[in-house]
Request: fold
Amino acid sequence: LSLSPLPAKEDETEKDPCSAKKQSPRLCGTTYPLSIIFVVVNEFCERFSFYGMKAVLTLYFANFLHWDDDQSTAIYHAFTGLAYFTPVLGALIADSWLGKFKTIVVLSIVYIIGHVVKSIGAIPPVGNHTVHVALSIFGLFLIALGTGGIKPCVAAFGGDQFEEDQIVQRRRFFSFFYLCINAGSLLSTIITPILRADVTCFGGECYALAFGVPAALMVVATVVFLSGSGLYKNLPPQGNILVGVSRCIGFAIRNRWKHRSSAYPKREHWLDWATEKYPEHVITEIKMVTRVLFLYLPLPMFWALFDQMGSRWTLQATAMNANFGGFIIQPDQMQTINALLIVTFIPVFDMGIYPLFAKSKIKLTPLRRMTVGMLLASVAFIAAAVVELQVQSTLVPEPVVKE
Reply:
């Protein structure tokens, strides 16, 4: 589902040296454009950078900045929320001003600066506790702005590299793109906790190195992306769809209010009150969007629970025995299981379980799959609550200091 943007001016396309008419070289004799390699590698490195930094973030708050569990959890989720809100800003900048390519480059630089500031803030000799907190918060703000800003651009930019008739190739590209996201997440959540725990610097755990390696990966991601600049199809900005949708909805509401009297005939749908200004196909597509939005209503609650893997579940793991016969799992490596299961289960479900249900004439629609997934998530958190009760019952209370 996509709303048709306004057509670009002809003179803009002709003057653009990387216009949409430019044919990209093909990948190893296939029909895939060579430029997607740079996009995919960029995404892999960027996801390694983001999830690698995020994996050790809660323990950094608790052990380095000496915040309590509640404050560590609150700041962790505030950062996560900001990182997933800034895509709106990135989309506005890309669609209305800079275009996808320039937006990715500019915000990637902001992203790198945030990583560097965050890494410096994790070096003990650099200032006092107040300086560490200030550098950490400022660095996280820049990282959230960078990662969120490029998020709506990279995948769409990769899709732009294909011709209109390459539907199958584009679909396979997005599948591989998603696989690279989880591969980067998987490797980073294994490696950065090891760097934190097993490498000693400045007389303690090496958070500076654990944050520095993701910073280096983000530099690699940006360099790789820029290396393919001569191969990209770079579509000019065509206006932000979100702004157009908002204006259409606003006009429909205002027009309905003006004609609220019973003297005016009713219309089939409240968005039909925008027909005086907006074409029928735009209104129809917005109606489809509003219907889909109802499916998203339970998702905030799901993700609020899901992201606790990096906060409460990590803190819970610090109080547990993770020694499996000499093989020790770090508390911040618990998140690795998520990416590992995703990489494993996607082909299992797509090539095994779902076809089996189809042969049994059991129709598993996307809505039913979502429902089952949310029910399983509920069971998972009930299990986590039972584990937490058991952990709390076995903890030795800290002695109270007498005044």
